[in-house]
Amino acid sequence: MRIPIQINEHSPEPLYHQIETQLRSLIISGQIQEGTLLPSIRELANSLNCSVITIRRVYQDLENEGLLRTRQGTGTFVAGVGEQMREKFKRDTVVEALTTAVETGLSLHLSEDELKTIFMEIVQQKYNQPKERK
Amino acid sequence: MRIPIQINEHSPEPLYHQIETQLRSLIISGQIQEGTLLPSIRELANSLNCSVITIRRVYQDLENEGLLRTRQGTGTFVAGVGEQMREKFKRDTVVEALTTAVETGLSLHLSEDELKTIFMEIVQQKYNQPKERK
Amino acid sequence: MRIPIQINEHSPEPLYHQIETQLRSLIISGQIQEGTLLPSIRELANSLNCSVITIRRVYQDLENEGLLRTRQGTGTFVAGVGEQMREKFKRDTVVEALTTAVETGLSLHLSEDELKTIFMEIVQQKYNQPKERK
Amino acid sequence: MRIPIQINEHSPEPLYHQIETQLRSLIISGQIQEGTLLPSIRELANSLNCSVITIRRVYQDLENEGLLRTRQGTGTFVAGVGEQMREKFKRDTVVEALTTAVETGLSLHLSEDELKTIFMEIVQQKYNQPKERK
DNA sequence: GTGGTCTAGACCACC
DNA sequence: GTGGTCTAGACCACG
Prior knowledge:
The structure is a homotetramer. In chain A, 57% of the residues lie in helices and 6% in strands. By secondary structure, the first copy, chain A, is mainly α. In chain A, strands 1-2 form a two-stranded antiparallel sheet. Chain A is elongated. Chain A binds chain B through residues 22, 25, 28-31, 90-91, 93-95, 97-110, 112, 115-116, 118-120, 122-123, 126-127, 130, and chain B through 22, 25, 28-31, 90-91, 93-95, 97-110, 112, 115-116, 118-120, 122-123, 126-127, 130. The structure holds a DNA duplex.
């Protein structure tokens, strides 16, 4: 099972956090299905070229959130996410991100219309060129 | 000159970063005008209840960004950033914040319409109740 | 990795600035290669007999200039500056230093020839006895 | 007597030092002649738009160097600079400035020829457009 | 009074 | 182990 996670070396965001965020998205959005066996800590650490400590932390954090289940000697599986929970999770995450952005606009005294215009441009662009390549 | 800055003790965001962000906003949004003499580092440290060094760092970082100008023995001033640059600065900041939010939506497989709807709700709410209360 | 930096205790030039200048030179002249892991701030502070904070500042300033890259928990690396940029950097630095010197000559009403003669003497001397001894 | 001194607000160089350097040059190069009565501390402070304390320091430092003489109740005069001393002074000043520049080149591993070429370009330019205008 | 530098030492987050 | 933040407090230089 290959997990499509991108690491940004130059970001100040901690490694474990980048990975957690992306893996969480993959699970909640259903791109990795319930019951899937994830790669072992070592495998993933290897393929992402980072420390096992970092991956262990990621798995553990997500297990604490109830998104993963670990079975001794067997491996780590994707736990079930109820449809309702999934929707709430998605919505909450997006609301938070958008709220931050809107507050930024507010604090800079941007008008409502300017903010909307810029938003529409970005949506337009991102949703028509969905896959980025390096 | 009183500087309206709010510190959130419980935020994981570093103190100096909270102050920097707010002061930067005040300057590039024009709420503090070019040439204004800011409070001395000791004064501001006192009124924000933090260490002199923290304020020193804030002033220095913003000076490195070209937003402040300081003269030993005299004080710290708001530097002149051209109107054009100010606009660019504002736009860049907002574009970055919105892009992050939109990408979050994309990664969660949210539809364009859902994202727009949520955005409009937030804008509606934030722009009609601009002052937060605790 | 040992970093050849000399500190002059008696110079009025601030410690952090002496170190910054020398480390910057080492990097942009290519004497320390891209990707090199620098000593930890504690190590360098120890070997230069100065405070951790002073070294921290040096590393941070150079990171802001784009010459270093640091990752919490991992260490501080020499960032990749393109060959082109490196050359520009070198040239700019030297041009600035020479311009200052020439302007000094001008303000003292030195003739063009006198200035050139003195310059040639100094170059002759410095480039044939490159290593200073104490 | 008007003293042609330019202050650079944006330079990190201390005010008193900028003024001292320029006044010293004017005296040593003979542009202000021996015996000339300089403006009073207040006058000069006024015309340069800086503090009297700053000017007092300048006059005092230059008096300590033997370039000025103060007579109670009369004012501050330019002291005599012997021809020999003047030449030595000029040469020393220029040698110091050029040495710094050459050492910068050396530390960046610039070749002798590169350094010479850049120097010649700068001299060419500066000596043919001697008066800067703002 | 102002800012500029440097110190020792603490505690936290990350790998 | 690494770097990141914050503290208190000292001393100097500038205006």
